[in-house]
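Quick illustration, no need to memorize.
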Amino acid sequence: MQYHEIVPLDKAAAGELLLSGDEEKIVMGLLGLVEGNTEWRWVQDQCLRFVNDPRVTVARVAIMCLGHLARMEGKLDLDKVMPVLDDCMQHENPAIRGVTEDTLSDISIYIKD
């Protein structure tokens, strides 16, 4: 995967990328959503859709974006997010576990009950 500048995206533009099925477009869609959309619940739900994607890059970015969202918005629906992240901590791939640990750290720092 080649580096591209992250472009903030609205729901329509991101939705098109997320539906493309193309790994790179999905990644750019997720990253762009976190940067550009203020509807945090909708962004969170889009990230959750891709957390268990069989493409490790897509899954890692979806998990990472949840951490970015926690940091940028200071909120997540923890009742939805935490069980998913707990499952990710059991993943056989250490890359998934590592990014999940980082995201859990972001949540503990930036989301105050």
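The helical segments are 11-18, 23-36, 40-50, 56-73, 78-88, 94-110.
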